[in-house]
Amino acid sequence: MYLRTTRLQSPPDAIEKGIAYFKEKVVPAAKATPGNAGAVLLVDRKSGSAVGITLWETAQALSASEQMGITSRTQSAAAMGGSIVNVERFEQVIQERTQPPKAGTFVRLNTVLGAPDKIDNTIKFIQKQVLTELKAQKGFRGLIMNVDRMTGRSTVATLWDTLADLEASEMKVSGLRRDAADAAGASDVKVEIFETAFAEIKQAARV
After folding, report:
1. Global pTM?
2. Is residue 176 a contact partner of residue 133, using CB atoms and an 8 Å limit?
3. d(CA 95, CA 142)
4. Is the pLDDT score of 179 beyond 90?
5. Interior CA angle at 30 toward 112 and 42, to 5°?
6. Which terminus of the chain, N or C, has fewer Cβ atoms within 10 Å?
């Protein structure tokens, strides 16, 4: 599975407009494009930050959808009165869900800039160490890991029923985060909290 993520920044009071635009315009356009496997929108209502994600069955489908992506993100930014911060493309290497995707849940997004030659070691660490610990935490819904093998950049998103569940898990995951950074050859991990505003994914519960 492959994905394109587009980060947008808008005034906080424009987030609802951006959510509506994503549901009404971006999702139908993605669905109409061959090889699409779903779409997700993450938002931070306080800061006005949003991350739009489209998922693709193959690298070829991702590449062929680029024009759709350009049109969607340009129009989304205009609709929100905001700007495009960056666009990234990843391979999805872990998707472990205990429950189906659902709007209104919360995501802790960890971004790691590691060494390309340590990507596989990092994947193994997440699978063997992190998942085992997180599955025991109240409100855990899943873990998604995406990687860019060329740059060594990776994201690990942990999914939670409520913001309170996410916050309660922080004490447990903070040590794991440090160990994961070490496994990746990274000096630090960027951590962000988002609400899932939209999630519709056409794929099995596990990769």
Report:
1. 0.90
2. yes
3. 7
4. no
5. 40
6. C
